[in-house]
Design a protein that fits this description.
InterPro entries: DMAP1-bd (IPR010506), Gtb1-like (IPR039794), Man6P_isomerase_rcpt-bd_dom_sf (IPR009011), MRH_dom (IPR044865), OS9-like_dom (IPR012913). This protein has 217 residues and is α+β, with helices and mostly antiparallel strands. 30% of the residues lie in helices and 31% in strands. It folds into 3 domains: 104 residues, Mannose-6-phosphate receptor binding domain (Cation-dependent Mannose-6-phosphate Receptor, Chain A); 55 residues, no CATH class; 28 residues. Helix 1 runs antiparallel to helix 2. The radius of gyration is 26 Å and the shape is extended.
Length: 217
């Protein structure tokens, strides 16, 4: 995300409402502590730093997910960043069960360009974004296709978390891909596999292990 926000890392900000004390530690977690003398007063995690929320090329909030369990799901919190005179946690609510909303004020986001996504990307990813913009302008992709490309760019940049299923799929493709960019790279891979195949054949023969091969493959 925006480099100027990294100075918030390692710091924590508190907010007390009614009998609860909330603590927000940017890029770390959000916790809640019940300020009562009950023997089972709640104290726990409302979310751990997970990813950004991005709307219209702008970082609008930080998602803290996978907090303590709550019924059949985990607690999660969205922290909205707004301009303020000092760094402080200003407001806390629970719009739906176990999903919390925090408003964090900071002078670090007062500049109109302070939360733009594009400037935080590498040149290579900026080029991908430019290309997607051009494709959309030329009518080569739909609005939905454009949003999908942007999501992939944000995931590659580490701004959005890639789902486990998608990560597994990506790794699988890398592992089993049989496509080669050039004939030369294909020949090189073929020679390497032939050597490995010969080694395995010799090893099996040496240990008297039977094997079958299909000469047509």
């Amino acid at each position: 995300g925006p480099a100027h926000l990294f100075r918030l890392a390692g710091k924590c900000f508190s907010f007390v409402e009614s009998t609860y004390k909330y603590e927000f530690c940017p890029f770390s977690n959000v916790t809640q502590h019940e300020q009562t003398f009950r023997w089972n007063a709640y104290s726990g995690i409302l979310g751990i730093w997970h990813e950004w929320e991005i709307i219209n090329n702008t970082f609008v909030g930080m998602w803290m997910r996978e907090g303590d369990s709550c019924e059949s799901k985990s607690r999660q919190t969205k922290v909205v960043l707004v301009c303020g005179k000092s760094n402080k946690l200003a407001y806390v609510s629970e719009p739906s069960t176990c999903v919390y909303s925090l408003t964090f004020e900071t002078p670090l986001v007062c500049h109109p360009h302070s939360l733009l996504v594009y400037p935080t990307l590498t040149e290579a990813l900026q080029r991908k974004w430019d290309e997607a913009e051009q494709f959309l302008y030329d009518g080569l992709i739909t609005e939905q296709g454009y949003k999908k490309k942007l999501k992939e760019i944000f995931e590659e940049a580490g701004l959005l978390r890639v789902t486990e299923e998608k990560e597994f799929e990506k790794q699988s493709k890398k592992t089993i891909s049989l496509e080669f960019e050039t004939v030369e790279s294909c020949n090189k891979e073929y020679k390497q596999l032939s050597k490995e195949f010969k080694k395995i054949k010799d090893l099996l023969t040496r240990h008297g292990i039977a094997y079958k091969t299909n000469s047509g493959e």
